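thought: user wants a sequence for this fold. calling inverse folding tool.
action: design(structure=
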């Protein structure tokens, strides 16, 4: 239970500190819609989504009015389409994506996730068809998000899949060149993907999940920053242990508020409540930035020496606070550092204080990875694959989730700007080491074996 002072603190978060519920995501299983007839399959999945999610947006609005906490995004995630639509070819997979898009529009959700393949140990027929369909599927839909899990600590790293995805990302960027490669912003490539992520673009409903479930994503970078600023104004001599404790208590309050709303919506829909994903996910709005937290901690900007240690402190404190508040913490839960979605992080990159190499180092302790990173359009597919492979290795060796959401912006070079709009924001295009010549390491393909850390049973 919250004390009176903590209740007043939550009210202050609402009024002045950008506290919101970033997403309520309804997961819907499509596995029993299976069919080898494409029309029957698309009709069944459309009807399933529209029926299950019909009241989602309305219930979220009722919860907003009841608790006074905004629900920024209402979303749907579905079973991995590479599994549910396994019999179909790539053209038919595009038709499935377009059906998902129509269903999402019909129920008025912001995004629908689950155009997903799980290929960490090999590529099945349905997986290949889905990956082949990615450029067309993502460039011809507005709300569909995709994810591909190419690595895990237990299985290793599927380099064949990574090389294939490097080419598909380039193709998706070309098909959406008039929007700075926007299609790529809807694709996450993962190592160790959780089954219950509510955040896009990685959300999907795992095959071990219930028939339908509500997962919520709570964010609060502005809340954490203001809490630190207030505490340091009262006592400038707080040490890092004390600041960690402060962040932990703040995360506790934010998690409790998010679970309250999530359970309310789940009860209204008559489905189980799943998890709270407590991730400090920024937006392009001033005062809602993860990068600003680094400045409150005493760093000039994210990216300068000390940034990785600061992020480790932040991520750990957020997880501890969430775990204390709820037994249903899941998803990614930690701190996101998406370049284009955070004005402060984008500014650090523009000023040369944050390089892609430092960003990669920081992903060893953050919740996601190289997120919403715009790079030059002439970056080769093999360089893209090499960047992804490096990021996957960080996740596999450290037994954590990592991901990439990289956008090679067609026709633009390092130092220019890419504009994605809405929550996806805008960003300086970051320079990459686009070494010329063949990358024979990446082209060798095969499976990088699972590390010794995988032998845990």
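)
observation: tool returned 457 residues.
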């Amino acid at each position: 239970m919250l004390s009176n002072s903590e209740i007043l603190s939550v009210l202050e978060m609402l009024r002045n500190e950008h506290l919101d519920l970033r997403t309520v995501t309804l997961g819907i299983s499509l596995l029993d819609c299976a069919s080898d007839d494409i029309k029957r399959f698309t009709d069944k999945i459309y009807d399933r989504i529209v029926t299950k999610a019909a009241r989602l947006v309305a219930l979220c609005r009722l919860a907003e009015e009841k608790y006074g906490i905004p629900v920024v995004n209402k979303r749907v995630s579905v079973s991995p389409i590479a599994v549910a639509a396994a019999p179909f070819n790539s053209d038919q997979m595009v038709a499935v994506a377009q059906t998902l898009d129509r269903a999402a529009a019909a129920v008025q959700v912001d995004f629908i996730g689950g155009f997903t393949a799980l290929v960490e140990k090999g590529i099945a027929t349905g997986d290949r068809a889905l990956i082949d369909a990615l450029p067309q599927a993502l460039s011809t839909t507005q709300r569909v998000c995709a994810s591909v899990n190419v690595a895990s600590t237990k299985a290793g790293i599927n380099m064949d899949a990574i090389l294939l995805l490097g080419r598909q990302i380039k193709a998706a960027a070309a098909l959406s060149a008039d929007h700075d490669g926007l299609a790529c912003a809807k694709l996450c490539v993962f190592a160790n993907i959780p089954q219950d992520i509510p955040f896009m673009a990685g959300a999907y409903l795992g095959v071990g999940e219930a028939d339908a479930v509500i997962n919520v994503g709570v964010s609060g970078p502005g809340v954490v920053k203001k809490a630190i600023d207030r505490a340091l104004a009262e006592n400038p001599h707080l040490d890092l242990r004390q600041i960690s404790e402060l962040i932990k208590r703040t995360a506790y309050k934010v998690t409790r508020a998010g679970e309250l709303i999530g359970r309310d919506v789940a009860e209204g829909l008559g489905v189980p409540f799943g998890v709270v994903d407590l991730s400090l996910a920024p937006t392009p709005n001033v005062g809602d930035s993860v990068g600003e937290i680094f400045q409150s901690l005493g760093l000039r900007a994210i990216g300068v020496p000390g940034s990785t240690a600061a992020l480790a402190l932040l991520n750990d404190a957020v997880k501890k606070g969430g775990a204390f508040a709820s037994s249903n913490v899941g998803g990614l839960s930690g701190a996101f550092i998406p370049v284009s979605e955070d004005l402060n992080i984008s500014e650090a990159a523009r000023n040369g204080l944050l390089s892609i190499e430092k960003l990669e180092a920081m992903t060893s302790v953050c919740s996601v990875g190289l997120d919403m990173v715009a790079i030059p359009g002439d970056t080769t597919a093999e360089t893209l694959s090499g960047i992804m492979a490096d990021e996957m290795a960080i996740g596999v060796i450290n037994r954590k989730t990592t991901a990439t959401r990289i956008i090679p912006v067609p026709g633009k070079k390092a130092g220019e700007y890419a504009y994605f709009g809405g929550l996806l924001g805008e960003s300086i295009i970051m320079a990459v080491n686009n070494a010329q010549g063949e990358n024979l390491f990446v082209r060798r393909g095969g499976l990088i074996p699972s590390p010794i850390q995988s032998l845990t049973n």
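thought: summarizing for user.
answer: Here is the designed sequence. The mean pLDDT is 89.
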